[in-house]
Structures are given as structure tokens and as C-alpha cells.
Design brief:
44% strand, 1 helix, single chain, rod-shaped
Length: 152
């Protein structure tokens, strides 16, 4: 190897070293001012439906009894996009309706009349994905052998 080859190689090595030292300093950036960033992190939850408005009617068709329920509306302070499970339970009856609407009509159908007061329960539960809220519960009592209407 000649002196000229050694000189060229030394020059290439020096150029590579200079590039490795100088290029990162050219690309380096510094921040000249600081600013606080306000980040708020929280959680959400499903709310219990409130301010439920509607009515019910205790029915006595022939030798049976039952209840018809009409939910007009309610307030849901939870996240948007919820669906609602409406559940009407009573003696031997369990009726469930799922809807995205805040209104529904339900009927228990006829159950044999036992000649005593009948107790019904309406629950409204909000649901979004796997989240489920606490149910809003409404008790309805139908007197023995008499029709009755009322508000929820």
C-alpha cells in the first residue's frame, strides 16, 4: 500500500469521524420555553335513571289480573348511546324489553286472580357495552278485585 492510499484512508476516516460528531449537533433541538399542560383525567359511570314519568293501570280481564305500564320519559345523566332494559316482574311474570328509547309500553299479561293485592316491580337499567347502571325501581300495588290507575 502506498503513501497515497494511506493518506486517502486517513482522510476518509477523519471525514467519517467529523460527520459522526457534527451531524448530531446540527440535528439537535432544544426547547427555549416551558409551558404547563393542563390534563384532566377522570372516569365515567352509568347513572341511575331519574325523574321517571309514566302511568300504570291494573287490569282485571275475566278471572285474571295484570298490569299495563307506560313509561313516558326519564332523565339519564350517564354517557350518551346507552340502551335501557325495562323489566316488569310480578307473580309468575318476568317481562323484559330492551330499547334505546326512553319510553316504552309493557303489559304483564293475565295471571290467575288470587283474590288478594298483587305487587309488581318495574326496573329501568341503563347499559352501555359492558357497563351497567344501578336500576331505577318502581313498586306498583294492584288492589284485590278492583281496577286501579296511577302514576309512576
Amino acid at each position: 500500500m502506498t503513501r497515497l492510499d494511506h493518506g486517502r484512508r486517513a482522510t476518509v476516516v477523519l471525514l467519517v469521524l467529523a460527520a459522526l460528531v457534527l451531524v448530531p449537533s446540527v440535528a439537535a433541538a432544544t426547547f427555549t420555553s416551558r409551558q404547563a399542560v393542563a390534563v384532566t383525567v377522570g372516569t365515567d359511570r352509568m347513572e341511575t335513571p331519574t325523574d321517571v314519568t309514566g302511568s300504570y293501570r291494573c287490569a282485571l280481564p275475566f278471572f285474571t289480573e295484570g298490569v299495563d305500564v307506560e313509561v313516558d320519559t326519564f332523565t339519564d345523566a350517564g354517557p350518551a348511546g346507552a340502551t335501557y332494559d325495562y323489566r316488569l316482574t310480578g307473580p309468575g311474570v318476568d317481562v323484559t324489553v330492551t330499547s334505546t328509547q326512553r319510553s316504552v309500553s309493557m303489559t304483564s299479561g293475565g295471571v290467575p286472580n288470587d283474590l288478594s293485592a298483587t305487587h309488581w316491580t318495574l326496573t329501568i337499567t341503563s347499559r352501555l357495552g359492558s357497563w351497567t347502571g344501578t336500576p331505577s325501581t318502581h313498586k306498583i300495588t294492584c288492589p284485590a278485585l278492583r281496577p286501579r290507575s296511577g302514576v309512576l
